[in-house]
Amino acid sequence: MDALLHLIQTYGLLVVFVSVFLDQGGLPVPAYPPIIVTAAIAVDQQQSLWPILLIAALAALLADSLWYLGGRRIGAALLRLMCKVSLSPDSCVLMTRGVYARWGAPSLVVAKFVPGFAAVATTLAGETGTSARRFAFYDGIGALLWAGLAVAVGAVFHEAVNDVLDSLETLGRYGLLLVAAAIAAFVGYKLLKRRLFLRELRMARITVPELYRLLEDGNGPMILDVRSQPQRDASGWIPGAVFVASLADVSLADVPLERRDEVIVYCDCPNEASAATLARELRRRGFKRVRPLAGGFEAWREHGHLVAHA
Question: For 173, which of 14, 92, 122, 184 is 20 to 30 Å away at the CA?
Fold first, then answer.
């Protein structure tokens, strides 16, 4: 435990930078505790808090910039990868796309305070063509606010933080094990939330061959496309599919949903999280036959079926 405290006291800024960069980069590394502890130690040693704030904000901005550049270069492919590996169950849900579509770059100011929103929002910023200057401005403000909150907590409650550190130091090696257990519990909690989220979205899917047969037989259901508008424009869509930017847009569809016997929803995530979320909400509204398309749009295209374009 002494080694850990010595590390924070000697290399506090480096610890803050690495933890924040990894956390904002998508790894399950808690970033707030190192910032809070480093800020508390700085107050006790009568050192300035500005370096901690700036380093944390810079690390967050650099990590976000990687998501932004990835979104600009590979866009939907990166979003699909995030949906597949992210431990945050709220990532790639329709709400995230809808919020960014409505508020744009200014939503980055509060993105880090919304679970599952930050990485998706920064990627969407790149995918939708937000300028680098506009992205850096709003994301920089958000990073400063996010880091500033942690620094403020460490400064205000520095005595309480010191009490905790003293207790851990008293425990010796058991204190280090306690810290390791806390980190493991954090990651385990993330895994559990993701598993529960995916379990909640379990429902019958329709396969691409089944949907194709329905369309060929002339019994085509209502098809809703819940991908982003840029992705829909760039890759095309399943013929007849209606674009839905948010749940509220369902009522604006060209064909009234209540007159359709079946509704099919698709997105571009491997686990169809966005499509399943919308399907679940439609069921709550009274629609009985609503199914996500297994594999989403990519599965449809991989089967070699016709794709519509503007």
Answer: 14
Q: Where are the domains of the chain?
A: 2-200, 208-302
What's the pTM? Answer: 0.63
Question: Which of 87, 65, 83 lies closest to 142 in space, CA to CA?
Answer: 65
Collapsed DSSP state (helix, strand, coil) of residue 263: strand
Return the CA Rg of the chain. Answer: 23
> How many whole angstroms separate alpha carbon 196 and alpha carbon 244?
26
Across the chain, mean pLDDT equals 77
Pairs from 196-199 (Cβ < 8 Å, separation ≥ 24): 196/89, 197/89, 197/90, 197/273, 198/89, 198/271, 198/273
Residue with tokens 């460490």: 154
Contact assessment for residue 271 and residue 293, using Cβ atoms and an 8 Å cutoff: no
CB 120 within 8 A of CB 92: yes
